[in-house]
Amino acid sequence: MEMLVLKLQLVSLKSFSPLLPLILNFGTKSVIGTEARGVYNAGQAEGMTFWAPNINIFRDPRWGRGQETAGEDPLVNSKYAVSYVRGLQGDSFEGGGLVGDRLQASACCKHFTAYDLDHWNGVDRFVFDANVTLQDLTDTYQPPFHSCIQQGRSSGIMCAYNRVNGVPNCADFNLLTKTARQKWNFNGYITSDCAAVAIIHDKQGYAKTPEDAVADTLKAGMDVECGDYLTKHAKSAVLQNKVPISQIDRALHNLFSIRIRLGLFDGNPTKLKYGTIGPNQVCSKQNLNIALEAARSGIVLLKNTASILPLPKSTNSIAVIGPNANSTSKVVLGNYFGVPCNLVTILQGFESYAKNSIYHPGCNDGIKCVSAEIDEAVEVAKKVDYVVLVMGLDQSQERESHDRDHLELPGKQQELIKSVAKASKKPVILVVLCEVKLDLK
């Protein structure tokens, strides 16, 4: 089923508008929350637990998953977490709590904690040990999760793969129980990241046996895992007296309490609080307009030489050149996405604007641009009134499990830009599609 795909967090937050997060995520007009429930009510979703938002601190601009976050600032991430969680779960900005503690959908703040590396310089997230001072942990990494739980009232959190000061996050009693549950009064469920329990034994060597890994995580306060390690080894861990039944009971209580709050045991769903949200509220005109406004307000204009923008309506010919000019999912949609309602590429947009639009990819191998047809692109640029270069990154360059090595444009993109700009009749319009920082010098 098609549904709204909003541009990633960093684009929305570049708008510097305090209203945008409210429009997207608060109250009865919550786009994310209503569409989530609408898809579920239409029978097109397997459940109502959503593993979002990602509120890790984006400290190193080369991190592949930084695009999923709200940036490097703890305060911005904290405010974003509250906004996202309340909107998804059905709360309101005006201060009213969840009606009857019922959930429109279940949010899950991730990845708890100090996770900002996937695979770099021979080290991956599965074995990474983040050495973090107490001050840095308190001032930088923990505030978004504290806000997510106390102000956002999230019903879920996810513990991260990595270790912090030697202890795996999913096996850290001080983190999951003493901090989240006891100090911050968290009353939801805690899940592991996918295969994180297995990694504690298989890759980190922190647990001596699979049963020890199960015991360490359940005793730390984790309730459920993404994976099958508990399915395989929880029974033997109980039989070996490594896990008391009380820990199993606690985990089940935390999990089923969320299902109850979602109304999954309350009979006919159409008669419940969120039962009337249907397909007509998915990809609605109002929601599409909000998505358009989010994209527009997140665009950053760095330079406008000779006031070349906006282009005159009398523009007759445009050359749209570059590996991202006609790109779809790899750059436009981001890391995780569903089927979008209406996807329009930059090329398609210009084709509807100018009578004569000429397209040239510039690079033979997409964003990597190891091989480029620079001479052909130059000849195209000479024929038209205006030239639009559409460069940047996509998910082949940065994503989950893949960090960048540098901040420059890939391959021959820079050479392509310089050559086309030199041949163009007027200053070229450079459009850079990316979610993160690039060195454009």
UniProtKB/TrEMBL annotation:
SUPFAM superfamilies: (Trans)glycosidases, Beta-D-glucan exohydrolase, C-terminal domain. The keyword Signal applies. Pfam families: Glyco_hydro_3, Glyco_hydro_3_C. GO terms for biological process: arabinan catabolic process; xylan catabolic process. One of its GO terms (molecular function) is alpha-L-arabinofuranosidase activity. InterPro entries: BXL, GH, Glyco_hydro_3_C, Glyco_hydro_3_C_sf, Glyco_hydro_3_N, Glyco_hydro_3_N_sf. Residues 50-255 form the Glycoside hydrolase family 3 N-terminal domain. Keywords: Glycosidase, Hydrolase, Signal. One of its GO terms (cellular component) is plant-type cell wall. Residues 299-433 form the Glycoside hydrolase family 3 C-terminal domain. PANTHER family: GLYCOSIDE HYDROLASE FAMILY 3 PROTEIN (PTHR42721:SF27), SUGAR HYDROLASE-RELATED (PTHR42721). This is Variant 3, beta-D-xylosidase 7. It comes from Pisum sativum (Garden pea).
